[in-house]
Amino acid sequence: MLPVDQAESIILNLVQPLDTQRDVEKVDLLSASGRILATPVTSKLDFPHWDNSAMDGYAVKFTDVKNCSPENPIPLAIIEEIPAGYQPQSHIQTGQTARIFTGAVMPLGADTVVMQEVTQRKDNNVLILESPKNQQEFVRYRGSFYTAGTPLLSPGIILGASEIAVLAALQCPKITVYRRPRVGILSTGNELVTPDQPLQPGQLVDSNQYALAVAVAQTGAEIIRLGIVPDEREILKKTIAGAITTTDFLLSTGGVSVGDYDYIEDILTELGAEIHIHSVAVKPGKPLTVAKFSDTQCVYFGLPGNPVSALVSFWRFVQPALKKLAGVQEAAWRPEFVTARSLQDLHSNGKRETYLWGQLNLGSNGYEFQLAGGSHNSGNLINLAGSTGLAVVPLNETLIAIGESVKVLKIS
Ligand code: AMP
Ligand code: MG
Question: What lines the ligand 1 site, CB under 6 Å?
């Protein structure tokens, strides 16, 4: 039985990010939502593109208005009106101004904008009642945010609303992103049926297929659902052999314990995979098979069959590896642990690193962990619903007492 951190580093070393040349595709702006940028994006434009006004008001020469006040207003002649999107025609001279609106291009000769709230308009003249605080007030100068040639987005970021807005503003209609990792999911067990089949005595619904499909999809990967495979060696072998050529990761649940029908490791060895992990000192989830096929590069995760064990093993071991494969930056694929105050006693037998599920909430004094009610049995799927964190009782420790600090893995 490997300690959790050793198992984690073996897995993360087996998996390398997708290739920046071979494993990329070009997608439209809107299809890039949620995808991972594969190449650096550099601006060809200055931001702002033009010197423009940050206010509705009057474009002036600072020297004309630097000494005015409500008692000593300064009159200026309005020689042009400049709405947004319009190229100014005038050149402001001393004693002159242009009416200007937010986002409109500054006219030549003006260096400052006076907001309209401190002015009084009279026909084609305006009285400036207050001096600007400084020259260039309310002017957004060309290139003052970013100049052309500045790298703006780095590879490995997940493209959301603000990143896609940047790409749109940069006039990038096609974005180079990593392809989606392909993940095969299969459930083993003669007892399993699909949710729409009536239950016969001894049968159980294959909930793992659904849990993993959703968990995998949440990472942005493409799912290949391989369904329920009976505990029959040849069928299982054929299914695995077929799937390893088309998937980056292949996940199975069940069949990795030491029961008479647990064939997975034998089959993987027969198919030429190298088995790197057999079991991990973790609860729930002790049986965990991790193997790699050298010819196809597919990594196989044989997860335990118990529904809670399957999901906890996914969150702790598979999800970070899958995100790393997908090309996201390291800060985004590392599991996210926080320190919380436990609201209950947390028990373990001390023999395995123990993960207890419950709710992680942000209280007025930081995070608090509320253990889920009901049985903490690895077969009890029900109270896992609504959980947002897994509290960790380390190896060789048997109790984290109420009020003490506990490390909690955020789950989503
Ligand atoms: P196994 O690892 O195959 O011995 O399975 C361990 C336990 O998990 C057994 O009680 C199985 O019935 C249950 N189990 C296995 N696969 C699934 C599945 N896909 N969905 C729900 N429960 C499962
Ligand atoms: Mg089984």
Answer: 187, 189, 191-192, 204, 206-209, 253-255, 257, 259, 304-307, 379
